[in-house]
Every structure is written in C-alpha cells, then in structure tokens.
C-alpha cells in the first residue's frame, strides 16, 4: 500500500507511523465531529498521517439487544461529513458483500472484520471497489496465513491493502498480541497494530465484552518498537457511556500524551 495514494491523507513525508482512530461506532453526528476535531488537531500538531475510523453499523454483537447503529445511510453520511469538514480520509468496516459498494461511495478505506477475513466473496467485493482494503487478522489465524488474504485482494488488481493485527485468542476470555507477527506480516503488506481491540476480554457471562484499557500505552509502545507501520485506536470522550466497546476504548483526553510518546519512540527507532 502506498500511503500517499489515500485521498486527503497528510504528513506522509514525516516518517511517522500512520493512525486509524475514532469511536467504535457512529452514535450520532455531534459525537463524531467532536472526536474527529480533537484527533485532527493532535495529528496535525504531531505530523501523523491520520484516517478517521467509525463503524457505520455493528453486525457482530454478543446479544440481540446490543447497539448496532443509527441507520446505515445516516451513519455513512456522517462519515462523509467528517471527511469533508476536516479534510481527512475515513475508514469503516463492512460485513456483507452488498456493503462494499455502498460504503465505498462514502469512505476511503474498507475494513474487513477479523471474524470475516476468510470470507472470499467479501474480501473480493471490497477489493473490486478499488478502495484501500484493511484486513483485520482473524483471532484464530496465524500471521503466515494472512498472506492468502492479501493475495485475494492483489489478485483483483488492487495493490492497496494493509493488514491489522488485533490479537489472538488466548483461552475463552482473553487476547494476546504476538509481536513476532508484525515482521512476519510486513512481508505481505504494511501492518497496523489494533491496540484497543487486542485488549478486549470477550465472552463475558453478561454478554458485554470486557477490556483492559490501562494496558493501551504498553501495547502501543511495543507495537511501534517492533516495527508496526500504523496504529489503530478506538477512542471516545466518555468510554463508560459509549454504545459499543466502551470497556476497551481510550479516553480521548489521554490520546495526545500517548501519541506524543509513540512519535518519540518512532523517532528513536528510525535512527537505529
């Protein structure tokens, strides 16, 4: 993937990692704009290439009464407004073949969720839009196996593909990041480390996923130190009351300090 080919992306010559960040789900226009505005200010200050992230719907839920979205078109229009207002690219995840063409009308990067990354029709549909395709590594997959997911995209004459590691299942209720996977997967495509999802604690008896947000800085620092090309962080100004994944999101007020630290680490790594 060539970062500078993503529409509206900035700071591509800064030699920094790139960032995918935003709320787990689009809950409304005001919250999306508020989060985007703050992240754009931080990333411009630190010269970090930035892509705003927000799910237009949440299809993978533990319970039938869990929040799934505010309406597909309504959420996608909010993503478009974020892009137009702040002049940044956007990314959202898709879950069905029909989602690919629809979402591609509004966003710049299509994300394949980890549980669906082996679904050939879905990956191909995303690739055929010509958009950048972000492949989340399945929690059940080895780093080496992601080569085949990448090939599905490139065989569709789309070279704009990136892999995102979001941890591997460790027992029933925990995730673990194997940092050996970063250099392995970099042989196939640029690699992003999804910091917040890798700290989830799934399969809780109450039907709501838990998390360990106090470890976000630790995992993020290790990701930059081991060569991740990008970092993925879900963030919210009020994680406790977020409608999805609040247990593992980073409080927005903590983002600037974390990114400042990561930029310093990246600068040191670049000098080695």
From TrEMBL:
Which EC number(s) does UniProt give?
2.5.1.55
State the UniProt keywords alphabetically: Cytoplasm, Transferase
Superkingdom per UniProt: Bacteria
List the Gene Ontology MF annotations in alphabetical order: 3-deoxy-8-phosphooctulonate synthase activity
Record's Gene3D superfamilies? Answer: Aldolase class I
What top-level class of enzyme does the UniProt entry assign? transferase
GO BP terms in the entry: lipopolysaccharide biosynthetic process
Its UniProt entry gives the catalysed reaction(s) as:
D-arabinose 5-phosphate + phosphoenolpyruvate + H2O = 3-deoxy-alpha-D-manno-2-octulosonate-8-phosphate + phosphate
**Where is the DAHP synthetase I/KDSA domain positioned along the sequence?**
9-262
Could you name the Gene Ontology cellular component terms for this entry? cytoplasm
SUPFAM superfamilies, per the entry? Aldolase
Does the entry feature the keyword Hydrolase, yes or no? no
The keyword Cytoplasm is assigned to this record: yes
Q: Where in the cell is it found?
A: Cytoplasm
Pathway(s) this gene product operates in, as recorded in its UniProt entry: Carbohydrate biosynthesis; 3-deoxy-D-manno-octulosonate biosynthesis; 3-deoxy-D-manno-octulosonate from D-ribulose 5-phosphate: step 2/3; Bacterial outer membrane biogenesis; lipopolysaccharide biosynthesis
The family line of this record is:
Belongs to the KdsA family.
User: Which NCBIfam families does the protein's record reference?
Assistant: KDO8P_synth (TIGR01362), PRK05198.1 (NF003543)
Protein name, UniProt field = 3-deoxy-8-phosphooctulonate synthase
The species this protein was found in: Aequorivita soesokkakensis
């Amino acid at each position: 993937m060539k970062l500078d080919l993503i529409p509206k992306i900035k700071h591509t010559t800064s030699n920094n990692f790139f960032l995918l960040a935003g709320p787990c789900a689009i809950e409304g226009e005001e919250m999306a704009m508020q989060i985007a505005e703050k992240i754009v200010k931080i990333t411009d200050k630190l010269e970090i290439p930035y892509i705003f992230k927000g799910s237009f719907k949440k299809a993978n839920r533990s319970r039938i009464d869990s929040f799934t979205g505010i309406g597909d078109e309504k959420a996608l229009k909010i993503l478009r407004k974020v892009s137009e207002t702040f002049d940044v690219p956007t990314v959202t995840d898709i879950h069905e073949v029909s989602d690919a063409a629809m979402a591609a009308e509004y966003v710049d990067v299509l994300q394949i969720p980890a549980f669906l990354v082996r679904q050939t029709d879905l990956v191909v549909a995303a690739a055929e839009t010509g958009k950048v395709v972000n492949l989340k590594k399945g929690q059940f997959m080895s780093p080496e196996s992601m080569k085949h997911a990448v090939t599905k995209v490139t065989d569709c004459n789309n070279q704009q593909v990136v892999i995102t590691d979001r941890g591997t299942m460790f027992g029933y209720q925990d995730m673990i990041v194997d940092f050996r996977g970063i250099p392995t997967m970099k042989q196939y495509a640029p690699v992003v480390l999804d910091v917040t999802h890798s700290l989830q604690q799934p399969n809780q008896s109450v039907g709501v996923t838990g998390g360990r947000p106090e470890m976000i800085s630790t995992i993020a620092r290790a990701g930059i130190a081991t060569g991740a090309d990008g970092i993925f962080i879900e963030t919210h100004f009020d994680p406790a009351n977020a409608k999805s994944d609040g247990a593992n999101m980073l409080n927005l007020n903590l983002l600037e300090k974390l990114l400042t630290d990561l930029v310093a680490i990246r600068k040191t790594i670049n000098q080695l």
